[in-house]
From TrEMBL:
This is Berberine-like enzyme. The lineage of its organism: Bacteria, Bacillati, Actinomycetota, Actinomycetes, Micrococcales. It comes from the Bacteria. SUPFAM superfamilies: FAD-binding/transporter-associated domain-like. It comes from Myceligenerans xiligouense. It holds the Pfam family FAD_binding_4.
Amino acid sequence: MPRNDSEAVAYVGEAISRYGRDVKVVSGRHCYEDFIYNGTTRAVIDMSAMNRVGWDERRPAFVVEAGCENWSVYRALLNAFHRTLPAGSCYSVGAGGHITGGGYGLLSRLRGLVVDHLSAVDIVTWNASSNSAELHHVSASSASDDERDLFWALRGAGCGNFGVILRYYFDDLPEAPEFASIYTLSWDWASIDSAAFADLLAFYAEFVSDMPETEFSLLKLTHVSAGQLGMTVQAVSPEGATLLDHRADVERRYAEARTRFGAIVDHTPLRNPLGGHPGWTTAPVGNESVQHVTYLEALQTLNGSGPNQFGKYKSAYLNKAFPPDQVAAIHRWLRTTPHGVAESDMSQSLLQVDSYGGAVNRVASDATAVPQRDAIMKLQYQTYWLNASRPGEGRRAPYDVQADAHLGWINDFYREVYAEYGGTPDPARDPSGTVAGAYYNYPDSVLGTHAAGDVDHALWLYFLDNFRDNERNLVAVKRRWDPANVFHHAQSIPVV
């Protein structure tokens, strides 16, 4: 657990010299797969002691160290500088992995991805020629092409691929909004047939395409066993807006949304909190009215990482509205309970559809490692379950029946939604230009791994032409900076 740069270099050098590729790095411990904690790991570089946030006079720039968690970053930037990052909502996610994987959240339509603001990175790499760890400060203005290429790769694909990131620098950051408002619309599953469901998804695509960039929405398509499904919207105040003007505009938009969605299916009061990431709260939020708060209070309200339990996630980007075959598949699987579990055990399972676009899409697809710059929606398939198994025994009998049921449900659900493209949201097999791959910060081993021999498919879905086809590509950067493939996991960038 390094506390400063010199310790980081020393510890990385010692660990790799002793254990080679069996060394992993952690920041906030939110990886969706077992890329760090698995049977091959013999040493862990834990960055949580390097957790400074503030202004670095030497650079000069704002600085966020890799061991920070989202909540501490938000609070420090807001209270000391009235600045913010367009980052994620789950409070305990670590900056080390979140930022380098792209970093998006409820302000991204207004301010873009976090990597769009990134100006430099401090990283410890491994020099295979000298068998030593080295500290580098890399940016778009670095003296060498190699360092500029590494900085480009770290803006979206740094997650355990090139070295140990110590800190991020931002020459400037957006001003934090003064005010925020939150509202929720909810509907009973009993009132929604297949036609109403199709209309709901079609209108949601129109809704996210037309909404102002100050708004961000989360459509939570919950399993039928939850009884209801719903949508939460956060609206922040534009620069210079007064509290009265902001409230009046949000109330107007809320009334319009209630009317337009209500024409499809009648609204009903939300009886229980909507689950999924983000949005784990202890009470219904913005239910039947708009909740007007400060920006800090909005961060607190939609700031949940959820209880400790088992979970599985899958992701996709959509550039257009849902095609009819996808709508039908989604409707069917949200009404399907897999064999081996009671229907009530599926009540936390859902497909969450986030609004996307806006400022995110004003950046070129090859400007950072994140290529998805035309999407209007971002999807996260989620399922959760809980049992009394001991740590590490969740896939053993008798608990394996429950785990297999949930994993089978979400994997088959996903496979059928994208059956037309071979079972994944593969744009290479989609002449309509509807799908645009998946999100690297939501890793999904089912898409492909080194062990299975199909990791290229997964990495193509995450990075598209930035993976190996463009002149500047991630494989070439990996080959230059980590030819010994020391920084390695199930979906790491390959050397060849």
